[in-house]
Amino acid sequence: MKKVLLSTLKPLLLICMLIPFLGMSQTKNVITTHRVFPKIDKVLEFEKALATHAQKYHTGDVKWRVFEVQSGPDMGGYHITEGPNSWEGLDTRGNLGDEHNIDWHKNVAMYLTDRQSAGYSVYEDTLSTIAVGDFTDKIQIDHVYPKIGSADKVRKILAQRRKVWQANGNTVAVYSTNASGPAQFAVVSRFKQGLKEKTPGFRKPFKATYEGIFGEDAFEDHIQSLREYTDEIWSELLFLRKDLSSK
Q1: Interacting residues of 58 by C-beta distance below 8 A, sequence separation 6+
Q2: CATH of region 30-244, choose from 3.40.190.170, 3.40.50.300, 3.30.70.100, 3.40.640.10
Q3: With 70 as the cut, is the pLDDT of residue 15 above it?
């Protein structure tokens, strides 16, 4: 009886030991982005073709959320996000088949300019105040570019800012780019209550909260650290286009 019990328990124990590793390997924290720019006189045709394509070919793990860029240097562009997915999932994603590719190239890409960009971004749980999949319709992206060799310094700066976001009730998702051009942190403010969250007085000023946590005059040191360790920071507003996204 004892031998039978042991023979039954061994596979169960092995499975239990493997569960943490299986969980880590399948973490869905990778977002893929594709930013495209339609020809100025073909916007309506492009939107119709994009919506048809997204709703026919992009469901499940390859579901699309399409944003229209409202401000900044990429105003007029369309920001297509897919995921979150795992790196293992991306290994098996493939190109979604010939029918998908033909539809994109024949029915959508014909309305685009040559300008485009694409990348992979990894959600940073320890720097964020909102879950990876807790999306909103209006967002602000602050693009933060560390100087060479300063990514860890900028990460520490963002960890400090996270404490302020938590205290003030800001819902922020932070991503780091991966194999997608210059090193970058994308700090995405997800406006749960809309753009009124940007109104002065809606929340306690960032500086006041920062110094309340880290001490008087700490904010000036914070700004100095940003000057020292970042090359560039710029921001943009994006609005979700549900009509163009996957259903």
Answers
A1: 64, 82, 246
A2: 3.30.70.100
A3: no
